[in-house]
Amino acid sequence: MVKTRRVSDIQVCLLLLFLIGLSAFFLSKKRGEIEEVLEKEMHALKEVMDKNPFLEQRMKSIMRKKVSP
After folding, report:
1. What is the DSSP string of 1-69?
2. Total Cβ atoms within 10 A of residue 49
3. Rounded to whole angstroms, what are the CA distances from 29 to 3, 23, 36?
4. I need a surface site. Which of 20, 62, 63, 68 has the fewest CB within 10 A?
5. Burial 16-45 (b: 16+ CB within 10 A, else e)
6. Cα-based distances in Å from 7 to 3, 10, 13, 25, 41
7. What is the mean pLDDT of each run of 10 residues along the chain (69 residues)?
8. Chain mean pLDDT for the chain
9. What is the DSSP letter of 30?
């Protein structure tokens, strides 16, 4: 029997944030383009988080832990 690992919503969002950064870095050549790509990707992520309030709260708590000294 093969064990499967379930991917949580938070793992998916963290992966999305990572991919947002990569796409902004590789797909643009100018600073204005980077900001435009980031804005589009963050808007898409916000739509996903709006559909799942628990996920939004979890992401905020993770960001607070990363930012606080």
Report:
1. -----PPPHHHHHHHHHHHHHHHHHHH-SSHHHHHHHHHHHHHHHHHHHHH-HHHHHHHHHHHHHHH--
2. 19
3. 43, 11, 12
4. 68
5. bbeebeeebeeeeeeeeebeebbeebeeeb
6. 13, 8, 11, 26, 21
7. 69 82 71 75 80 77 68
8. 75
9. S
Joined tokens for residue 23: 């796409």
DSSP code for 14: H
Integer angstrom CA distances of residue 45 from 23, 54, 55: 14, 14, 11
Angle between helices 53-67 and 31-51 (to 10 degrees): 130
